[in-house]
Amino acid sequence: MNRTHDYLQRAGACRLKRRDFTILAVVLLASVWQVRAQQRRPSQDSAIPAKHLIGFAGARNGANGALYIEADVVQFEQSGAVAPVAVNIPSIRDVVLGQQSGQVGGVPLTLAKAAVPFSGGRAVSLVSHKTYDTLLVQYVDTSGGLHGAVFQLKRGQGEVFRNELVRKGARVHNDEHAPSKPTAEAHHD
Amino acid sequence: MTEGKRRKLGLLAAALLIIAAGSPGRVSAESGARWTVQVSTVDPGKTALPPGLQFAIYESLVHDLSVSTRFKDVLREGDRRADHAVDLLVLHSTVDKYTPGNETLRAVTTVAGWTKVTVHAHVSRADGTVILDRDVTGNVRLFGSNMRVAQNVAHAMTRILEKCPLPATRSRP
Lengths: 189, 173
Description:
The complex is a heterodimer of chains A (189) and B (173). A seven-stranded antiparallel sheet of chain A has the order 4-3-2-1-7-6-5, sandwiched between helices. Chain A is an alpha+beta fold and 189 residues long. In chain A, helix 2 packs antiparallel against helix 3. The longest helix of chain A has 45 residues. Chain B is α/β, with parallel strands linked by helices. Helix content of chain B is 40%, strand content 24%. A five-stranded mixed sheet of chain B has the order 2-1-3-4-5, covered by helices on one side. The longest helix of chain B has 20 residues. Chain B starts with a helix and ends in a 10-residue tail after the last helix. At the A-B interface, strand 5, helix 3, strand 6, strand 7 and helix 5 of A face helix 3 and helix 4 of B.
């Protein structure tokens, strides 16, 4: 009887220890998550979903991600990448807005449209297009070489981002706070 | 193997070696690898080329020329290293014609909505000697966004520069 009692007591203490350890682990994880969330908050507040088309040194062409400003640095965080790619605002020489129209859905939808019988895919193409803003950021690197990074943003967000850049001190030659006139390509749509 | 066959094989191997060594591509590639090229930004000329596309062509050119082993170094516009480069070529690109396309029209009709750009490539030495003066055309006819025309022009221009014979450099290899 005594032996059974001892065993039960030991088992209870062990369970208590295990429970304490679990609580401690949960608390630790929560605090780490909180710290990381606080670290990322400034970037996430002003982050704009963007697609990098070409020209931002270090970023993959065609990569989707988030474009944001932190202190005096423009950063592009590619989805799946470890560290964001950055450019200092003082090194920016010009920011130009544009518009372009394109088909949505990428390669999967293109293939699906091609598979529709009696050329039905063409009818789908008539409605599966969208107009985007393009944002051109011209900047110089440490050796003075000129770069031109082109991003594709949702309609209307290019202007928001450009205004934010201007507010942070970026040089803009065509300093109108309205988006530049739609390009000939967009005009033809 | 008979003596005659061995001799024929030897002659064939020697002929192949001579042809390979004397091919113009190889000679120009060796001499070209000592040149540094500086890429200037694309001049839209009298066309309504959007700035985004203008810089997409410039960036594609810098990328393609860097990937190619034709040149020792590829510099961007404004790069201070160009001031000290001994064997420097400068690539100027001016847009001659630009036909704005439409991706939706391309997808619907197949035969309309093509995007087409003709760029005049001018390569010269620092002293003004012209090395290359040619028109290059790029287009998007079926699939892909209008921006793809930039890659097509840059690919075509890089191919031409890879084949273009270059003069001997002043510096020793």
